[in-house]
C-alpha cells in the first residue's frame, strides 16, 4: 500500500512538476505513461548486452526516459558503461537520472558499490522510484544539498560515506552547470577518496566543463582528454 501511494505521488510529480531553477520557470515535457513499457524493454535489452549496449538501445533509453534536455547522451552513456565495466572499485556518480540506472545495472552485475549524489529532493524521489521499479536497489542514491565550499558550491558529502582511496570511477553530470564553480568541486572534495588511476568522466565540456578542466590543469596540474563529438566529456586520470 505504502509503495503504491509512493508510486502515485511520484507519478503526479513526474508529470506535473514545474522546475524553477535560477529564477526561470520551465514546464517540463514528460513522456506519456505508456512509454514506461518501452523504457523497461530497452533497459532489459541493455542489461542483456552489457558491457556493449548497442547505440540504438542507448538512444531508445534516452528517448523513453523522457528528460531529453537533461539526460546524459549516448556517447557518455557508452563511455561510462565501458569504464564502469573495467573498474574494480567504487563508482561515484554526481547528478542522477538515466545514467544512474545504467551504472546500477553494471554495478549489480559485477557486485560493485555505486553511490550517487543528487541535490534535488524531488528528482531524487523520481530516480529512486525508477531504481526500485527495476530492482536496482544496489544503488546508494543520496539526497545531498549543495553547500558552499571556498569559491564554489558542491554537494554536501555525508560524513563517512567513503573510505580513503575507495573510488575508482567518477561520472560527473551534476550539479547543474549554473552552479557556482560549475562542477569543479568534485575534484577537491573527493580527492582523498580517489584511488591512484581513478578516472573522472566530466560531462558537458562543450559548455561549462571546459573551464572546469582548465582549472584542474591550473590548480592540480592534471591533463584531460576530451571525448565525444557534439556533447563532449572529459576524461581525467588521477595519478
Ligand atoms: C545533467 S542532469 C543529470 C542527468 C543524469 N546524469 C542523466 O543521465 O539523466 C544534472 C542535474 O539536473 C537536475 N535535473 C534533472 N532533470 C532536470 C530537469 N528536467 N530540469 C531541471 N533540473 C533537472 C537534477 O538535479 C540532476 O542531478
* Helix content class: 40-55%
Write the H/E string, N to C: HEEHHHEHEHEEEEHEHEE
Rg from Cα: 17 Å
**CATH class of the domain at 71-237, anyone?**
Alpha Beta
Main-sheet strand order equals 5-4-3-8-9-11-10
Looking at the structure, what is the overall shape?
Answer: globular
Sheet having the most strands: 7 strands, mixed
Features:
239 residues, alpha/beta, Rossmann fold, two-stranded antiparallel ribbon, 8 helices, 42% helix, globular, disordered N terminus, binds S-adenosylmethionine
Could you walk me through the main structural features you see in this protein, from its secondary elements to its overall organization?
The chain is of the alpha/beta class and 239 residues long. It has a domain of 167 residues: Vaccinia Virus protein VP39 (Rossmann fold, 3-Layer(aba) Sandwich), CATH 3.40.50. The chain is built from 8 helices and 11 strands. The protein has a 7-stranded mixed β-sheet with strand order 5-4-3-8-9-11-10, with helices on both faces. Strands 1-2 form a two-stranded antiparallel sheet. The protein has a two-stranded antiparallel sheet with strand order 6-7. Helix 5 links the parallel strand 3 and strand 4. The N terminus is likely disordered. It binds S-adenosylmethionine. S-adenosylmethionine (SAM) binds next to helix 5. The site of S-adenosylmethionine has 19 residues, from helix 5.
Amino acid at each position: 500500500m505504502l509503495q503504491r501511494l509512493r508510486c502515485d505521488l511520484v507519478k503526479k510529480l513526474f508529470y506535473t512538476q514545474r522546475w524553477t531553477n535560477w529564477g526561470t520557470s520551465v514546464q517540463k515535457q514528460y513522456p506519456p505513461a505508456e512509454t514506461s513499457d518501452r523504457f523497461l524493454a530497452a533497459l532489459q535489452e541493455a542489461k542483456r548486452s552489457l558491457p556493449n549496449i548497442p547505440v540504438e538501445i542507448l538512444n531508445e533509453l534516452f528517448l523513453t526516459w523522457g528528460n531529453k534536455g537533461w539526460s546524459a547522451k549516448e556517447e557518455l552513456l557508452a563511455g561510462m558503461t565501458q569504464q564502469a565495466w573495467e573498474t574494480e572499485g567504487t563508482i561515484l556518480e554526481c547528478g542522477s537520472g538515466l545514467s544512474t540506472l545504467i551504472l546500477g545495472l553494471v554495478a549489480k552485475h559485477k557486485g560493485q558499490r555505486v553511490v550517487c549524489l543528487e541535490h534535488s529532493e524531488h528528482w531524487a524521489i523520481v530516480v529512486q522510484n525508477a531504481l526500485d521499479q527495476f530492482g536496482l536497489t544496489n544503488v546508494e542514491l543520496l539526497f545531498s544539498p549543495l553547500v558552499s565550499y571556498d569559491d564554489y558550491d558542491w554537494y554536501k558529502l555525508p560524513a563517512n560515506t567513503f573510505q580513503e582511496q575507495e573510488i575508482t570511477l567518477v561520472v560527473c553530470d551534476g550539479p547543474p552547470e549554473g552552479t557556482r564553480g560549475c562542477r569543479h568541486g568534485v575534484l577537491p572534495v573527493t580527492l582523498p577518496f580517489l584511488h591512484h588511476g581513478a578516472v573522472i568522466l566530466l560531462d558537458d565540456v562543450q559548455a561549462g566543463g571546459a573551464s572546469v578542466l582548465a582549472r584542474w590543469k591550473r590548480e592540480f596540474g592534471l591533463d584531460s582528454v576530451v571525448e565525444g563529438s557534439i556533447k563532449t566529456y572529459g576524461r581525467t586520470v588521477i595519478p
